[in-house]
Amino acid sequence: MGICEGTAELHTEAKIPLIGLGTAAVNQNEEEIKAAVATALQVGYRHFDTASTYNSERPLGEALNQAFQNGVVKREEVFVTTKLWNNQHDDPVSALKTSLENLHLEYVDLYLIHWPVKLRKEAAPFHFKEEDFLPVDIKSTWQGMEQCAELGLTKAIGLSNFSSKKIEDVLSYAKIPPAVVQVEMHPMWQQRKLREFCSKHNVHVSAWSPLGGSHTPWGSTAIMENPVIQEISQKHGKTRAQVMLRWGIEQGVSVLPKSYNKNRITENFQIFEWSLDFEDEEKMSKIEQRKSFRGDMFVNASTGSYKTVEELWDGEI
Ligand code: A2P
């Protein structure tokens, strides 16, 4: 696993670009997503992150296919990630085939188990009832993910929102080890323990909400408003978002900021020709840690596989 020219190398030997466009938002507007993807491609983004539950697969796929047809970029030059939702754990192959239809792609570059949580098929996307929760069986779901890779539907497979312990469990039985784990990560939730674990096991880390998810229901503006970030941003003449994203890539992770705004998409990509210094890193390492998205919705005291948030994260919260 190495880092070169804005990419990191996965254990599959594929290169993952260190910045990707995130596409999770409430009230998704297809035209807005298509325009954002087209802008991002022009600016230089070659990495796009979606999920079957985001309602962004279809517009992302349309914008990419348009770009392929217009010769803006070739399929093999972009890295596309999508994810298996909690009510699809029984059949990752069928779930990924549906995602590929939505995306109008023959394969994705990375397919992730979105959460270590299993729900019945009928479960509504985000309002789970007690009867929706099923006993989680990651081993059998992982076998389905391995089949996806063996069938060539995805180049790599991985995990999202898994604790170090849960990743270790998967590593103990995986025929194909996870190439990536995607987790909440920003200067206020630095994931030092998990990153150390992943580095030892050659698992690349991607950061969702690398800007702390400001103005989203799952994030907060606290990190954007943190005085340390403000000070470093003034010192370098960079925006606070650029400081946070630069910090992320200097940690060796890939960052997936979401923006559908042309100026902010452009701003977020300008993180390669300058760097933070030792003093900045020191100051940032001391920022008080607080996870924004605790995942209470994935916990159920009577029917869930996790009775408490601490169980969901194996104490890593
Ligand atoms: P918008 O889509 O209007 O640009 P995260 O990627 O950490 O989840 O954060 C996403 C949030 O941060 C969105 O509300 C997005 O708003 C906002 N955002 C993205 N880029 C920037 C930026 N450069 N400056 C300020 N806010 C940003």
Automatic annotation (TrEMBL):
UniProt name for this protein: NADP-dependent oxidoreductase domain-containing protein
Family per record: Belongs to the aldo/keto reductase family.
Record-annotated active site: Y54
Entries under InterPro entries matching the protein: AKR (IPR020471), AKR4A/B (IPR044497), Aldo/ket_reductase_CS (IPR018170), NAD(P)_OxRdtase_dom_sf (IPR036812), NADP_OxRdtase_dom (IPR023210)
NADP-dependent oxidoreductase domain span: 19-287
Keyword Amino-acid biosynthesis: no
GO MF term set: oxidoreductase activity, acting on the CH-OH group of donors, NAD or NADP as acceptor
UniProt keyword NADP, yes or no: yes
Keywords: NADP
Positions annotated to bind substrate: H114
Provenance organism: Araucaria cunninghamii
Residue numbers marked as site, Lowers pKa of active site Tyr: K83
